[in-house]
Amino acid sequence: SISQGGIGKEISVRRLAEIYKELEEQGAVNINLVNPTHFAGQIIESLDIYKPGIPVVWNTSGYEKIETLKRIEKYVNIYLSDFKYYDGSVSLKYSRCTDYAAYAVQALEEMKRQKNDTIKNNIMTEGVIVRHLILPCNTDQSIKILNLLKNQFGTDIYLSLMAQYLPC
Question: What's the whole-model pTM score?
């Protein structure tokens, strides 16, 4: 109902920059851009108008192109990236793509190249967090993903493991 209910409204790039400033003035600790990739160009324009003094979070599905990540490098402080699936058959079933894991790994490598994990007063100000939702009947995917992350990044990566998905 939120994504397809026609509730949203179009805003200008300038208005988006104003919203950043308003949120910052209201005491927000970050600007969290959720699923922002398809608006990367407009987000860059808005951040050229006003760059907040608080971290900008790129809250993504993890299915990112390296070119996009390089375009936003100087604008984003924190990457909050999903890592959803390991096997192509599972990503095909739930997200209609077989190459999700390959994109997610390449994207994380680029994100880690760009950002050093920095925490001040128990709040991340720069870095990368990998978010993984443990899906019912797919815990093998979670184990494979965790092993891949350990092999790829060692212990030098923040994880957010979630188990709140409950199909009716």
Answer: 0.92
